[in-house]
Amino acid sequence: MTLLIFLHDAVFRRIERMDWILPVLARLLFAAILLMYFWISGLTKLGDGILGVFSPSMGAYAQIFPRAMEAAGYDTGQLSMFHTLVVLAGTWAEFILPLLIVIGLFTRLAALGMIGFVILQTATDLYGHGAIEEAGTVGAWFDKVPDAVILDQRALWLFLLVTLVVKGAGALSLDGVLVRNAPSAHPASPQPAPAAPHRP
Fold first, then answer.
1. Using CA atoms, how far apart are residues 68 and 62, in angstroms rounded to an integer?
2. Per residue in 3-21, pLDDT tens?
3. Could you tell me the end-to-end alpha-carbon distance of the chain, in angstroms, rounded to an integer?
4. Where are the alpha helices (DSSP H) in the chain?
5. 196 by DSSP, 3-state: which?
6. Maximum Cα interatomic distance, the chain, rounded to a whole number of Å
7. 19: CB partners within 8 A, 6+ apart
8. Angle, vertex CA 14, rays to CA 163 and CA 23, nearest 5
């Protein structure tokens, strides 16, 4: 029994020291599960041509402001500059924030931004698009069904992102390169001045 406890402690002490593994796995899973989801969603919001990145499509407004678009008769010209700025910010966020997370650059800030994005996306889906009224979409925790679109799936998305906020991107990232190459945060201690020669 003592040998078993010793082996257990030895193995798991080593695993505990592998701090890099959680953020790297979180970024890998984010890339595998969510990167293309957000990028394709962002592509549906782009307007026509090269400058479409600065002039969102009508579908972008309908996705982000469904009730306002319906009230405006799907005429984007009747919406305010606020609506346009929010749609632009949301569109750019779907490209920029996931990319930053995957390459591990400014990862904590990007993960915080994605947390805010997912929360707003969820609120829009629930109340703007009426998902709250659709049976089975919202789901419930502590039930036997693990794949509800809102409560189950997005809770796991948020867990990945919270892991990155807490742990950072890990050593295998551009953040890690920046930290390793950054000048020391603590300046070198000044050397004491040489003692003046003693004079009798």
1. 8
2. 888 888 888 888 888 888 9
3. 74
4. 2-16, 21-30, 36-43, 58-64, 66-71, 81-103, 107-123, 151-167, 174-181
5. coil
6. 98
7. 167, 170
8. 20
Show the tokens assigned to 166.
């807490």
The pairs formed by 71-74 with CB atoms below 8 angstroms and a separation of 24 or more are none
Cβ contact 98:38 at 8 Å: yes
Kindly report the pTM of this predicted structure.
Answer: 0.83
The pair phi, psi for residue 20, each rounded to 5°, is: -70, -20
Structure tokens at 198: 């003693």
What does the pLDDT look like over 48-63, one tens digit per residue? 888 888 989 999 999 9
What CA–CA distance (Å, rounded) separates 165 from 172? 16
Q: Is 101 in contact with 164 (CB distance < 8 Å)?
A: yes
Q: Over the range 77-109, which residues count as b (16 or more CB within 10 Å of their CB) and which as e? A: eebeeebbebbbebbebbbebbebbbbbbbbbe
- Alpha carbon distance 131, 148 (integer Å): 12
